[in-house]
Amino acid sequence: MAARSEATDEMLMVRYQRGDRQAFAELLSRYEAQIYNFSLRQLRQAGNAEDVTQEVFLRVVQKAAEFKHEARFSTWLYTIARNLCIDELRKYSHRRHASLDQPGPSEGGERTLGEQVPDLGSRSNVERNALSSEVQRRILEAVDELPDEQREVFLLRQLADLPFKEIAAATGVGENTVKSRLRYALDRLQQALGEFEEYARALR
Amino acid sequence: MDCERFDRVALDLVYAELDELTSAAAKRHLGHCARCRDVSTRLRATREIAVLPLVEPPSGLRAKILAAERQARSHLGARQRLGRVVSVLAGYAMRPQTAMAALLMIMIGASLMFLRARPGERDHVRVTERGVPEGEGEPVTVVPVPERAPHSDTRTAPPHGTAEIDPGRERARATGGEKIAAAQPTARPESQAGRAAPLDKSESESTSADYGTALQAYRNQRYAQAQRDFELIAAQGGAEAPSAALWAAKSMLRSQGCPSAVARFDELQSRYAASDIGNQAAWEAANCYQALGQPERARKSYLQLREASGYSERAQRALDSMAHEVAGSADVAAGASKPAAAAPPPAKAQAPAAAEK
Question: Hey, are the CB atoms on A179 and B80 less than 8 Å from each other?
């Protein structure tokens, strides 16, 4: 989540409701990458993720007047993104057929999702960089193999950094159900990434 | 804290969502429970290693979104525009100055509600003797007391001075029932039948039959019977009561003469003053007084009738006739006194002649 040294998301939303377009630009800068990555991990297609990201912020524009200030803006935003991703998945049924090796229609041309994963860049030697790329590829594969409900909760927790209560509100299930799904997701990821735990400890 | 309890809060501990007290309890449990410590370590390690790398969005995405936002704002529907206006207004409404102004307006409005309304254009109210505004109360009819009960049935007249209320009478009066009742008996059956329509049907039918019977008795010069019937009708009240009372008095006049009837006419005159019934009663009373040798009372009545519409000529002729009679009687009295003094009475003059014969 973007740093909020000045106005909170909710304050920016109030300003935008009153017609301050600069506030919307600020919100966009804070959440553009997060919504795009969330959509990308859910849809696995960069083109679709880009469309969904654009549609999410367009919904914010259209439904700005309906935003209730009792809720967190991030929760409202991820709820919109989640619903649009579900619609998109149902529409194209791409969920089980996409691959990280499948080229996306992004500006990267023929780059695959795996190739789009940035380098952690924390170590300089070639061996460590190769290991890092391998870890990240395995992480993405493991996340991709998660059941839909578990992956959704995992992304909202790990990527969006939403508290359990907010995730429950966004997904429409109970908080205990959210924790249970996340527990199962972490167990699966632990099994898939167990061989890299030493590497993870080394990164710390 | 036991292991079961720790399992429920393990994720909260890993993601730092536990309150300090529970977190401290969980950490104390980890200090002496190898199993839970292993679970916590694995969860924490998985969380740390399963960090998803952020992919940079396409470079043109932000510009596209801002352009779409600009276009969407220009094509906002009425509902969205209204919502935005409401949001802006709500922002101003939440200011203390606005709240104070609204409170002041509410106080002014509430105080206006307690102001008394103006009395309106109706600056006076006409009331009846009973104190009920005219037109809102029920009509009051005072019926005459029959001199003797004509029948022993239930239709006996109420005591003198009591009020008998009948909503139908007001309608009959409004349609001119009194004047109709005062009309001549020969013109009554058709004209009154129609004008007394608002009355109760059974009452109207029974009253009409009695009235016709009484009228027929009057025409057949059975004045005592006619008087009883008319008095009964008058006692029943209604639109025909005044007329029936008048004809009862007339029947009494025919059967018993002026000495008995004049008081009845006087009563009717005073009761129905300034109406046709009252004028007719006054006319009959004046005639009676003249016949009874009370010219001053007759003159007084004639003088009053001279001012009444429809009676001025008759009253004037009666007054002229009275004046002529008075003048004639005065001349006769004067002529009789003079010859008596100058010449002998004819009888006396003729008497000698007869004697001579």
Answer: no
**Contacts with A114 from chain B: Cβ below 8 Å:** none
User: Is B64 an interface residue toward A (CB < 8 Å)?
Assistant: yes
Q: What residue has token string 């959704």?
A: A152
Stated length of chain A = 204
For residue B238, which of B282, B275, B205, B287 has the smallest C-alpha distance? B205
Interface confidence (ipTM) of the complex: 0.73
- Hunting for tokens 């299930």 — which residue is that? A173
Annotate B135-154 with b (16+ C-beta within 10 A) or e (fewer): eeeebebebbbbeeebeeee
Distance CA A182, CA A158 (A): 10
How far apart, in whole angstroms, are the C-alpha atoms of residue B200 and residue A10?
Answer: 80
Amino acid occupying residue B179: K
The Cα–Cα gap between B190 and B210 comes to 15
Nearest by CB to B66, which of A14, A25, A66? Answer: A25
Phi, psi of A103 (to 5 degrees): -70, 140
| Chain A positions in Cβ-Cβ contact with residue B73 (cut-off 8 Å) | 21, 61
- A29 vs B contacts (CB less than 8 Å): 62
Closest CB from B11, B17, B45 relative to A200: B45
Written as six digits, the tokens of B57 are 């969005």
Given a contact cutoff of 8 angstroms between Cβ atoms, the answer to whether A162 and A179 are in contact is no
Residue ranges of A 50-69 with Cβ closer than 8 A to chain B:
50, 53-54, 57-58, 61-62, 64-66
- The predicted structure's pLDDT at residue B119: 57
Compare CB distances from A61 to B57, B69, B87 and report the shortest one's residue.
B69
Residue A196, C-beta contacts closer than 8 angstroms, at least 6 positions apart: A135, A138, B49
B93 in reach of chain A (CB within 8 A): no
Q: pLDDT at residue A22 above 60? A: yes
**Residues in chain A within 8 Å Cβ distance of B79:** 65
Count Cβ atoms within 10 A of the Cβ of residue B167 and give its class: 0-12 exposed, 13-18 middle, 19 or more buried: exposed
Three-state DSSP state, B133: strand
pLDDT at A35 over 90: yes
Predicted confidence (pLDDT) per residue in A55-107, tens digit: 999 999 888 877 877 778 889 999 999 999 998 888 776 445 444 444 444 43
How many CA atoms lie less than 13 Å away from A58 in the CB half-sphere?
Answer: 18
Q: How far is A25 from chain B (nearest CA, A)?
A: 7
